[in-house]
């Protein structure tokens, strides 16, 4: 379901300019300068209304976070919350995940969060899934040598398909959970996750790491 268009978006985004990156291509290779420190950079693709990334940034002041969201209604809600909290280690932008190598230099990102990405159910739309091999190739390029993807979803079919896609493309799978909320993993919920887990949906999670031997063969 599409979110209703929010009112006065231009004015509201202008008020949030301090946490927005309006020209991310100009920051490529210079993200640490943008934050004013040498801390690691983590990226969430599809941050929604921002619950996960805001709490993660609060808990980790020594890490820089970049949150991407294409839906303007969700993005403005996330940025307004960030403005209210004055988190210096968090920035937002709207951008296409397929072209992330245009705004991040090789090895510039330490970790990528994929939380409850759109499953695009018909198999013919698999190329639009954020765990499709073309996206994985982009992630591989921008992640540092020992970088990782943390992926979670409530969609079992997407999860199983994604595990196969990751394995086939040389990623090392670790810490797989088939019922995250019954596990011992430290977990910060998204808005979506809280809603559907309350309805009894099981949450699936995996960490996918770049294989060192794969990097040596490049």
TrEMBL record:
<feature type="binding site">
    <location>
        <begin position="190"/>
        <end position="193"/>
    </location>
    <ligand>
        <name>substrate</name>
    </ligand>
</feature>
<comment type="similarity">
    <text>Belongs to the class I-like SAM-binding methyltransferase superfamily. TrmB family.</text>
</comment>
<dbReference type="GO" id="GO:0043527">
    <property type="term" value="C:tRNA methyltransferase complex"/>
</dbReference>
<dbReference type="InterPro" id="IPR055361">
    <property type="entry name" value="tRNA_methyltr_TrmB_bact"/>
</dbReference>
<feature type="binding site">
    <location>
        <position position="96"/>
    </location>
    <ligand>
        <name>S-adenosyl-L-methionine</name>
    </ligand>
</feature>
<comment type="function">
    <text>Catalyzes the formation of N(7)-methylguanine at position 46 (m7G46) in tRNA.</text>
</comment>
<dbReference type="GO" id="GO:0008176">
    <property type="term" value="F:tRNA (guanine(46)-N7)-methyltransferase activity"/>
</dbReference>
<dbReference type="Pfam" id="PF02390">
    <property type="entry name" value="Methyltransf_4"/>
</dbReference>
<feature type="binding site">
    <location>
        <position position="44"/>
    </location>
    <ligand>
        <name>S-adenosyl-L-methionine</name>
    </ligand>
</feature>
<protein>
    <recommendedName>
        <fullName>tRNA (guanine-N(7)-)-methyltransferase</fullName>
        <ecNumber>2.1.1.33</ecNumber>
    </recommendedName>
</protein>
<keyword id="KW-0489">Methyltransferase</keyword>
<feature type="binding site">
    <location>
        <position position="154"/>
    </location>
    <ligand>
        <name>substrate</name>
    </ligand>
</feature>
<keyword id="KW-0949">S-adenosyl-L-methionine</keyword>
<comment type="pathway">
    <text>tRNA modification; N(7)-methylguanine-tRNA biosynthesis.</text>
</comment>
<dbReference type="InterPro" id="IPR003358">
    <property type="entry name" value="tRNA_(Gua-N-7)_MeTrfase_Trmb"/>
</dbReference>
<feature type="binding site">
    <location>
        <position position="69"/>
    </location>
    <ligand>
        <name>S-adenosyl-L-methionine</name>
    </ligand>
</feature>
<keyword id="KW-0819">tRNA processing</keyword>
<keyword id="KW-0808">Transferase</keyword>
<feature type="binding site">
    <location>
        <position position="118"/>
    </location>
    <ligand>
        <name>S-adenosyl-L-methionine</name>
    </ligand>
</feature>
<dbReference type="InterPro" id="IPR029063">
    <property type="entry name" value="SAM-dependent_MTases_sf"/>
</dbReference>
